[in-house]
Amino acid sequence: MSSDIFENPVNTREEILAATYRTLRDRGYADLTMQAIGEELDQSPSLVYHHYEDKDALVLACLEYLLEHFRDEYSYETIDDPRERLEEVVDWCFGTADADDDRQPFVRTVLELRVQAIHDPAYRAHFTRSDQVFAETIAAIIRAGIDTGDFRECDPNAVAETLQTVFFGMISRLFSTDADGWAEAVSNEVELYLDSRVYAT
């Protein structure tokens, strides 16, 4: 997935979402304000308030936009090379362990927002849906691979949930501790898991 999803906003709504994305990435949720988003837009905060009631409504709209972008990018009417597609998704996810990955600041913020879901039903609903979309995307690729003979007979949903759980466990550790020497070993174990559990050859 492109790391610059908002490179070419086509209307005011997308410009506001792009400014929200950049402000979240640079400042984090705690320091996000409508004023800060207005400054990023080089516009009065009143423009932001005209479209969104408060910062949480805006953050949730931004997260929904990103989720739809992910769904569009990784949804295929036909999957010609299931292994290549699965490796793309796995690389996109586990690539955030790389200290040079430019998505790290935003992924850190998403983890911060997940904490909001403990007490906020709106965030909980979003991340429930987000997890479902992510798992369904992986499961669809695995089903396609089973159909083509590229993958072993396995439970696509169980494999998808396993990969998702490992991924979110990994980013939770990455951004809440000072140790990251284990990340490469975990990525290698994921590859071994796919080789032994999913890939046919």
TrEMBL record:
Domain of life of the organism encoding this protein: Archaea
Alphabetical list of PROSITE patterns matching this protein: HTH_TETR_2
DNA-binding region, residue intervals: 33-52
UniProt KW keywords: DNA-binding, Repressor, Transcription, Transcription regulation
GO molecular function, one term: transcription cis-regulatory region binding
Keyword Repressor annotated: yes
UniProt xrefs under InterPro entries: BetI_C (IPR039538), Homeodomain-like_sf (IPR009057), HTH-type_TetR-like_transc_reg (IPR050109), HTH_TetR (IPR001647), Tet_transcr_reg_TetR-rel_C_sf (IPR036271)
HTH tetR-type domain boundaries: 10-70
Keyword Nucleotide-binding included in the entry's annotation: no
Name of this chain's protein: Regulatory protein TetR
Organism encoding this protein: Natrinema gari JCM 14663
